[in-house]
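Hey, I was hoping to borrow your eyes for a little while. I've dropped the whole record in just underneath, so have a look:

——
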Amino acid sequence: MKNNEQNHEFLFEKVNYTILLIGIGVIVLGFILMSGGGSDDPKVFSEAIFDFRRIRLAPTTVLIGFGITVYAILKNPKKA
């Protein structure tokens, strides 16, 4: 009689999931940095939308987060 138990194995190791969560957190931080800067009145233009945080820092943070997630996917924990 055959046992009907299946061995469930995760695709990644715990290290990969940890790095992946860190990458997702960095991406979320980048989008939080990108938010805001608008005006409540649509007739008034606000220059705050073009400051360093929204133009340079936030997109760079998002790209670094994507790089971290790609690294987490490609990392092979079995290799030392």
